[in-house]
Amino acid sequence: MNVLQTVDDVRRFLKEHRWVDRAETCEIYELSGGVSSRVWKIVTETGRLVLKQALPKLKVKDAWFSDVKRIEREQLAMSAVGQILESKQVPKIIQRDQENHAYLMTCAPEGSVPWKAQLLEGKLDRKTAAAVGTMLRQMHEKSRTISTSIVDELKDLTYLNELRIVPFHHSIAAKYPELGDAIERLEHELITEKKCFVHGDFSPKNILVAKDSQLILLDFEVGHWGNPVFDLAFCTGHLLLKAFVSDQKDEMLHLIKAFLDAYGEWPNSFMRHLGFMLLARIDGQSRVEYVKEPDLKNQIRRIGKQWVSDQSEIHPFETMANALR
Questions:
Q1: 29 in any annotated domain
Q2: Sheet containing strand 207-209, strands side by side
Q3: What's the total number of domains in the chain?
């Protein structure tokens, strides 16, 4: 595998593969790409593209490795979901290099920004939240039309295990052994209740908002056939953590409600999975960078532990509102 590290590496790679014309001028910018990949934006005389390559070791403090073949899973998931969501909501794959675990895709419209950035800047648009909830519901519901051959491939949970179960569930269970049985039940739900396509990384950082309010969904590496509660709790967890650090807590709560109302339903175990996501993002191997105050971290830990352990049905909005007070 030829690991691309510099702009010159990328330029050479693109021209050797003839993914851009050898004579064509191209500007290359490295994008954030999250913790699992390196991503570059390529601007040529004829258009704008994005190149992505999987990393064997994720960019986090702890040792966290994952098979780079997951990028082939990402391409499978992207292609499948691209057939069921609106045409502009999923990037289109243009070129693939299986040997170097890289691919080239279309680029989002100029001026598109991550929803995460808008939220952290205090731009709290309920319509955007509702549109995100609708997109998630449509993805889950319409995925049941995906061909059985693709579904069979998506039922392999290798990358869910490497990128979520081990670094999230197993690490939190080791840190809080008193929650071991409760976390094991949550894990069991995720790996046995296979109902639809699950994105696995459905968070505000992976949702771009274009200037015309069009949404673009990114990063399908953890895509699998599984339990939709994972996506719902994963995204809500990110929204709730941002509410904890926001000076607009009431508006953030309304935004969360708009997201969940647009999605339309949640299982009885939703709040237990949500509590777990709070713990995973404070104490797991991939921690949010914006929750910094020790007292706030401890407050979130207490809430997360309580929700994970509570086996009764609790109302999401009332419970979250009380947690933010």
A1: yes
A2: 113-114, 207-209, 215-217
A3: 2
